[in-house]
Every structure is written in C-alpha cells, then in structure tokens.
Design brief:
The structure is a homodimer of 255-residue chains.
Chain A lengths: L6 E6 L10 H8 L3 E4 L15 E4 L11 H13 L3 E6 L9 H10 L3 E5 L4 H9 L11 E6 L10 H6 L3 E5 L5 H9 L7 E6 L7 E6 H10 L6 E5 L7 H4 L13
Helix pairs in contact in A: 6-7
Family (chains A, B): Belongs to the precorrin methyltransferase family.
GO molecular function, one term (chains A, B): uroporphyrin-III C-methyltransferase activity
Pathway (chains A, B): Porphyrin-containing compound metabolism; siroheme biosynthesis; precorrin-2 from uroporphyrinogen III: step 1/1
C-alpha cells in the first residue's frame, strides 16, 4: 500500500471576515498540523489553528512568489509524514484556484484529500450591495468568469454577454477599461454595473453605476484588486443604482 | 421615523450538512426570535435556534405551499413587533431564491435587512466529485443557471454552451432529457457531465458520465430533485470519469 496516514484538506477561507468560514472549516483548522496560507486569504485565520505551523505560499496576480510545483511538493511532503495539512484558499477553493491540479497531484501520490467549501467573493459582493445575483425579472443565472487567463488572451465577452446572465468578473480590475469596452459592443451602455473591492471584509468598498461609466468611475474612486465586477440587470436592484452612479456607502465618490 | 427596531436576516443555510453553515449564520440563529424555514433547507437547523419560534414556509418546485406574498407579510409583521426574524434559505440566499424581491419589500417597509452568505449547492456538488468548478486547461468560468424559468420557457442553451464555461444547472432534473438534447446541438456528445443529488448532505448521490448518456443514466439510477447537473470539460477531472460512466461511490449503477 502506498497510502499514507496524513492528509490534505483544501479549505475555503471565504471572502475575508473570519465569521464567514464554515463550522466545518473551523473544525479542520483546529485540527491542523500545517497551515499553507494563500495571500488572498485573511492571515488572521491562523488564530483558529493554534497547533499548526504556518507556511505562507502567496501567489498574487502575475507575481508568482511561490511556484505551484513547490506548493504541491510541500503538501505532499508533510502529508507523507502523517501530518494533517490544511491548504487555505480565499473564497471557495473550487473556483479559480489551482485546486483541480492540486487534487490530481495528491490523488496520484495516494494522499487523501478533503475539500471544504466556502463563500466565494462574488456572493459576498452581492450581499454587500444588498442584492441577489439573480433576479427572475432580469436573468436566469450568473456567470463567474476570470479576466486573467492562462494564455493572456481575453474571455469571449460577446458570448458571455449573449447569455443574458449576470456577469461576476474576478481578477478584472487591471483590465477594466478593455473588458467593459468589449462588453459594450454587445450590452447597452445603461446596463447596471458595480465594483466591490475587498467584498465580505471590513475594508469593503462599493461602486454602483452603469456599464459605460464603470471603468472611469472605478479608476477615479481608486478601486483596485482584489475586487469583483458585477454586470447585468439584477445589479440595478441595488439601492445605490436608483440614484444612478451616486455614491454608495463605503467611500466618498471621487468624480 | 418609520424605522422599526426588529430586523430580518436572510440566512443562507448551505447545501445540507449543518457544519457547512458559516460561523456568522450560527450566531444569527442563536439570536433568532422567529425562524422561517424553506423546505430546501435542512430542518435540523432549528436545533441551532433554541429561542426561536419555527414557521415552515416551504415552496418546493412548482407546488406553492406558502405564497411569496404571505411570506413577505409574515417577515414584516414579526419584524415590526421588534423581533429578529431569520429567514432561512437553502444554499446561498442570493442565488435562485426570491431574495431580491424580499429585500426590496423590506426596504420599502423601512425594515433592516442583513444578508448572510453560504455555500451554494453547485460548489458542494463539485466538492463531492472531487473537482474544481473551473480548471484552467478547460474553461474560464462557470455559469449557474436555473432550468426552471418564471414564464416556463427554456434558457438559451445554445448561448450558454457557446461561452465554454462549466454549466451548473439547478432545478433541471424534471427536464433533463430536453435540456441535454438542446445542449447536444452545440456541445460534443463526449462532453463530461454529472448529476449530484442532495449535494453536501449525508444523502449525496453522484453520477459521472458523458452528455449524450446523462439523461438516460440519471433516470436509470433513479436520480431526482434536488440535484445539480454539471456539464463541461472540467467535470472530466472527476475520478469517476476516467472509467467513463462507471459507478462512482455513493450508489449502485442501475444500467
């Protein structure tokens, strides 16, 4: 048997605030021997893992501070020693992380993997705006899409817009001007749009406006990563939208 | 001032298991005076709200056991008495519920609303399959879509398929044959596909196969609502897919 006694838990840390962790996640953290911390996750999470050695393995945006292959080796090495390794990922581990590759490698090495779900920041962004991601008057669903693609190409914005779903765009702030320009080729200028930075944390900042004004206003307000961009009719239900691009609580409007 | 002292919390109960509730949700339940329970939520959640009077307001599928307008009135009546009303919804309250309408009505009535996020069943379904909803080798995102539309029409399956995102289809089991047939007009027959019934609960059952065989195999296996249907390249990473439509743990294959 090549099976080892240790295991790896891929743990979703949620959008930021520690009380948005699940009860199951809190339990796994309490039992962790090794904590691998992504830098999109709230570092205070370590306070919930009093017995764990904490290893930071952040990899923000394009800057690859800890190569993926090294993280994989770290997880396996400690699990093979019989330890409980908890790999913490921001949001839900199963959206836009490298969880798929990590699970495959662990499976290959006959190491047990647990997955603990969490709240993805797109949901927290909607909660911050006081809206639902879907609204039966406006759409039949929501698409979570990353603007940061492996080969540096752009997603097919026309195809995404054609679905009529709410768009929740992750990792889009560095190209907000070009992606909104692409969407404006398909969607009306008046389409409701929002940016929520640091969704689900104490630092949350929100902007609600229309698609044609989104890039300019977000830049003027100094909004940057990490943030979720939300676009679609359902966003028009936000209290701030009635006043059209008016300041919503959370920051002073710079325009 | 028309503002009242009571409040309503829209609380996401997650997919089923109580330990998939967030810490914040557990706190709100402990402080609840009135608990309005959806029947997609785990009824055991009431054990976490020892001081609350429990009112069941289920509304499964097409059968409207408690009309939406009545639920709205219930929430408002109790909140106006100064009580803390917790409205429990399965999954995340901000996806495919009527949260948008409920928030609007409460705002109109000057009643404070808190929203507490949770784990949507699509994420739990992916965890059950041991896969990520997105995988950079396969797709740039995931679309959550309901097959159950307000006007009984079908979503635009061709447009959804054209995005190349993973599709996570909610409330689709009653029309699984027609929706897979529609998707097959755009997607290859060999597209990986899965059904996860009761995702994230002890009763979870899973099937992994290809799009062309999905409806027949799901029916043969007796899989029904509530379930999430997952379709796309990323689903091919599931351990069960290698063996192609082979039994995956959770139930005996009926075909």
């Amino acid at each position: 048997m090549s099976t080892v006694q240790g295991k790896v838990t891929l743990l979703s840390a949620g959008p930021g605030d520690l009380d948005l962790l699940t009860l199951r996640a809190a339990k796994a953290l309490a039992a962790a021997d090794i904590l691998l911390l992504d830098d999109l996750a709230n570092a205070d999470i370590a306070t919930l893992a009093p017995n764990a050695r904490v290893i930071r393995v952040g990899k923000r945006g394009g800057c690859k501070s800890t190569p993926q292959a090294f993280i994989q080796r770290l997880m396996q090495r400690h699990a093979k020693k019989g330890l409980h390794v908890v790999r913490v990922k921001g949001g839900d581990a199963l959206l836009f992380g490298r969880a798929g590759e990590e699970i495959a490698a662990l499976r290959e090495a006959a190491i047990a993997v647990d997955i603990i779900n969490g709240v993805s920041s797109g949901f927290a962004a909607a909660a911050g705006l006081g809206i639902s991601l879907t609204h039966r008057d406006h759409c039949q669903g929501v698409t979570f899409v990353t603007a940061h693609m492996q080969d540096h190409s752009q997603p097919d914005w026309a195809a995404l817009a054609a679905t009529g779903t709410t768009l929740a765009i992750y990792m889009g702030m560095s190209r907000i001007a070009s992606l909104t320009a692409s969407l404006l080729e398909t969607l009306p200028a008046s389409t409701p749009a929002a940016v929520v930075q640091h969704a689900g944390s104490q630092q949350e900042r929100r902007l609600v406006t229309t698609l044609d004004r989104l890039a300019e206003e977000a830049t003027a307000a100094g909004l940057g990563s990490p943030a979720v961009i939300l676009i679609g009719g359902a966003i028009g239900e936000a209290a701030g939208f009635a006043a059209h691009a008016e300041t919503v609580e959370g920051f002073a409007h710079a325009a």
